[in-house]
Automatic annotation (TrEMBL):
Biological source species: Pseudonocardia ailaonensis
Residue span of region Disordered: 44-63
Protein name: Uncharacterized protein
Length: 63
């Protein structure tokens, strides 16, 4: 009987953690989208300045 209670408590804790993470993520999503949009604009501005096209793998070492 105590094993069943322990499993149910564990599942309850996991459910609470999932809810907290979901609510926190939903609250921060607008800020993360704003950061991503700003980074994209900065990246596009840097690409417009360069005369040659740069692919997204340009920071990799290619010997």
């Amino acid at each position: 009987m105590t094993v069943v209670v322990l499993v149910l408590v564990g599942l309850g804790v996991l459910a609470v953690i999932g809810i907290v993470v979901g609510v926190t993520d939903a609250a921060q999503s607008r800020a993360w989208r704003r950061v991503a949009a700003e980074r994209r604009r900065n990246w596009e501005a840097r690409q417009a300045v360069t005369s040659r096209p740069v692919d997204s793998w340009g920071d990799e070492d290619s010997d």
